[in-house]
Amino acid sequence: MLLVARRGFGGLGEAWTAPKWLWLGAFLGAFIVFTITVASPRIGTTATIALLVAGQLAAGAVIDRYGLFGFERIALSWPRALGIALLAAGAALTLKR
Fold first, then answer.
1. How far is Cα 22 from Cα 69, in angstroms, rounded to an integer?
2. What's the predicted TM-score (pTM) here?
3. Taking the domains of the chain in order of start, what are their residue ranges?
4. How many CA atoms lie within 13 Å of 61's alpha carbon, on the beta-carbon side?
5. In Å, what is the CA distance from 87 to each residue of 4, 7, 16, 61, 67?
């Protein structure tokens, strides 16, 4: 598409000079797409999406707790922990048939 639209690769070559941790998003995005493609026929779409959302919330809580990627540290309070636990329980319930 870049070759046709811009008659070149645009700034694609500059992507290799980006910090390596930024590439984590690209690899995780590809992993999520692959996982959804494989998991949906096996466990169902609802369970797949529920587990995906629960995993993202848990990852967000870890990022907040330890201040990863330069974010402000936010303590894991009991309401946040309870919310994560309830979401995980709900995701687990979608696996029951």
1. 10
2. 0.71
3. 19-93
4. 17
5. 45, 48, 38, 13, 22
